[in-house]
Design a protein that fits this description.
Elements (H helix, E strand, L loop, with lengths): L25 H16 L4 E3 L9 E4 L9 E19 L9 E14 L5 E7 H14 L10 H19 L1
Antiparallel strand pairs: 1-2, 2-3, 3-4, 4-5
Bound molecules: nickel (II) ion.
Nickel (II) ion (NI) binds next to α2.
């Protein structure tokens, strides 16, 4: 296993659109293992392949406090969404920024597991937030894009300044 480098906002590669997974092979298994290790090491509760510059529809999530409930979603799709719920979100690609985002409160979703078996689940609360947040990454969307233009400009300026400092 390996710890992968997580792209930081506003990296343009975070806005790429992920392609569906068609091969459920050893490479996919390795990607999932590396993504899980990267997420736990960060530490975070979710990671999309887009964030490690792999543009395939793969997500890992673990919302447990004990880090022993890994959810792997390949080619995830939401079947049903209802209710609205505001939650303060963060993102490993936007470190240190926490902002409220409104999303569906309850979702039914389907995905393949790492072996290609279809799984179907329902979620509310933090898991529902995470699935929606990570699925946004797969379409090139970062959670700060839900915020006001003023907030987005401030956040972008903060990270661009830090990147310049690092490069200097
Ligand atoms: Ni994120």
């Amino acid at each position: 296993m390996a710890i992968l480098t997580i792209l930081t906002y506003p990296d343009a590669r975070l806005h790429k659109f992920a392609a569906p997974v068609t091969e459920f092979d050893a490479d996919l298994k390795k990607l999932v293992d590396d993504m899980a290790q990267t997420m736990y090491a960060a530490p975070g509760v979710g990671l999309a392949a887009t964030q490690v510059d792999v543009h395939k529809r793969v997500i890992v999530i673990d919302t447990s406090e004990t880090h022993d409930d890994l959810v792997v979603l390949v080619n995830p799709r939401i079947l049903k969404a209802n209710g609205r719920h505001v939650y303060e979100e963060g993102c490993l690609s936007v470190p240190g920024i926490y902002e409220e985002v409104e999303r569906a409160e309850h979702i039914d979703f389907e995905a393949e597991d790492v072996a290609g078996n279809t799984i179907r689940r329902s979620a509310t609360g933090l898991l529902a937030v995470c699935v929606q947040h990570e699925m946004d990454h797969l379409k090139g969307k970062v959670f700060v894009e839900y915020l006001s233009r003023l907030k987005q400009t401030r956040i972008r300026a903060k990270f661009e300044k830090e990147a310049r400092k690092k490069a200097a």
